[in-house]
Amino acid sequence: RAKQLGGGRAEVHRPGSPDPSQDRLAVLEQLRAALREGQLRVHYQPRVHLRSGDVTGVEALVRWEHPGRGLLSPAAFVDAAETSGVIRELGAWVLAEAATQAVAWDREPGGRLAGLQVSVNLSTRQLADDDLVARVTEVLERTGLAPSRLVLEITETALMHRPGAALRALRELKALGVLLAVDDFGTGYSSLTYLKQFPVDELKIDRSFVSGMHTDPADHAIVAGCVHLAHALGLVVVAEGLETPEQVVALRAMGCDQAQGFLLGRPGTPEALALARAEAPDIDLTAAGRTPAPS
Ligand code: C2E
Ligand code: MG
Ligand code: MG
Ligand code: MG
């Protein structure tokens, strides 16, 4: 089941600990404490318009500043949170934090990060949660974030887990005016019948296809096909995991709208993102030979 939730997440089991289930329980105990004690952080990765180079939004990505183990990526704890249900509190916290941050950027002098969209990942269990719509409504009201600036990212796998229920949830979310994205597209079991019915706005092509584009003709064809399909369905298409200038050139030639990746900006603290924008207000993608910034 952990595998189904997508994208090569590591097990929480640490080498040297005798019992993985004990380990998982320990992680959960610590995660609950982390929520209470404020050890979770949200990092933000820019999303860029491929033609203009403008930053159109940021994706909120959770991190755990673990007292003993340092900064942990979601691979170390999101699956455990999902299977145990702790994901509800974790997800609610990330949503509130991201919305609060987006509004804070609006108020900053200079306003370089004002008006950006903020994307938040939803898990399978969150999507099935009866309280989801109420929670999103509450956060939008409390923070004053315009609904059209919130993008909820849902993996194909989460959508197809119970497609009928997902469809109802998506319709309710759409009615709030938020935007919906299909995340990691191409890696789950998408039914095109459902894709056609789901009221989604954006399709994110999984990094695995984007990274293979220049070595594997099949990956190149899949990416081109996804761009075409997305546009035919009237969706904005975003490429994930952009790492090389060659990928920029190829994606632009395909007409891909937007991209995210280490080449354009790594996930970082809100302060780091503000700084990156100050140093490079206009990311120049016109130079095909542009080298990635050292990280
Ligand atoms: P995702 O939503 O597909 O997020 C993109 C992941 O790709 C992020 O990993 C990001 O750091 C990474 N990435 C971006 N550009 C590049 C690149 O150019 N090269 C490479 N190699 N990687 C790149 P991260 O932050 O470790 O998150 C992994 C996954 O954890 C996310 O995949 C998402 O499914 C999940 N996740 C993160 N935050 C949350 C959250 O708040 N709630 C839930 N439910 N899931 C979350
Ligand atoms: Mg992914
Ligand atoms: Mg995502
Ligand atoms: Mg993704």
UniProtKB/TrEMBL annotation:
It comes from the Bacteria. Residues 24-281 form the EAL domain. This is Bifunctional diguanylate cyclase/phosphodiesterase. The keyword Chaperone does not apply. The chain holds residues 316 to 610 of 621 of the full protein. Keywords: Coiled coil.
